[in-house]
Amino acid sequence: MRICPQELYAPYAKEENLKRIGRAFVLGGAGGVVFASLFLHPYGAVKAAKSLKPLLAGADVNPIVSALVERSCQNCHSEKTEWPWYSYVAPISWMVEGDVAQARSRMNLSHWDEYTIEKQQELLGRIGAAIRSRQMPPDRYTLMHPSTKLSPIERDQLYQWTHAERSRLKSVMSTPEGQKPRARIHSTAARSRRAIHPGLLCCLTQVNARLFSTNYKKFVP
Questions:
Q1: Taking the CA atoms of the chain, what radius of gyration do you get in angstroms?
Q2: Is 141 part of any domain?
Q3: Host domain of residue 146
Q4: Which residues are within 8 A (CB) of 87 and not within 5 positions of it... i.e. 6 or more apart?
Q5: What pLDDT shows up at residue 45?
């Protein structure tokens, strides 16, 4: 019985075809991932938003608290996000961008000075509650970024700062309006008074005392 060469190599040819199809699928999938990573952003241009402003601009922040905020809050709640390599690979990039977009919409530390005093007080209350209840930073975030985890002492430092800053803002709101302008008016009047000759000032004072005496019936012109 004579065997045809085509029949002899047929199994090998089928195996080679399957390998080619597999490589095509892999390359096609990789190409799709690259395309999706570069051009598909369901939450908008989240990475394009960048700011050079300091965090918590306008707030009274000490260096210790500032360092804690930069370490544990900056990546999600500001426009100074340091994007890890996996945030550029779809579909993981969509999850990361979605988390950052949601966090910024709730509180953006890069725009702190643009919030009203009432809004700042509200956000400070939320920060303090989230820190004390250990909701922030989230466990799934600290699991991948261990350096962002806060110790009990650091949590207390952040909480005490939020309380102190809310008290400061409350005192600012309770300051009577127009107090400073009145002080400027008084100082201007004092300077004008000093500019008058002492002798003339004395005469004017005596005349005013006679004109505006409370016992006007005894006034003699």
A1: 36
A2: yes
A3: 63-174
A4: 47, 93, 96, 97
A5: 84
Cα 154 from chain centre: 19
In the block, which residue shows the tokens 């005392």?
209
Whole-prediction pTM value?
Answer: 0.64
pLDDT(200) > 50: no
Secondary structure of the chain: what % helix, strand, coil (to 5)?
70, 0, 30
Total structural domains within the chain? 1
Percent of the chain with pLDDT over 70: 61
Return d(Cα 120, Cα 27) in angstroms, integer: 50
Q: What pLDDT is recorded for position 108?
A: 97
Residue 11 lies in a domain: no
For 191, the token pair is 């300077």
Nearest-angstrom CA–CA distance, 107 and 52? 17
Residue 115 lies inside a defined structural domain of this protein: yes
103: phi > 0 → left, psi -120 to 50 → alpha, else beta; which?
alpha
Amino acid, res. 55: L
Torsion of CA 31, 33, 37, 41, to 10 degrees: 120
DSSP letters, 76-117, are HHSS-----GGGGSTTHHHHHHHHHHHHHHH--GGGGGGS-H
Residue 50 placed within a domain = no
Q: Which residue has the higher pLDDT, 207 or 31?
A: 31
Q: In this structure, what DSSP letter does residue 150 have?
A: P
pLDDT mean over 210-217: 45
CA atoms within 13 A on the CB side of 2: 1
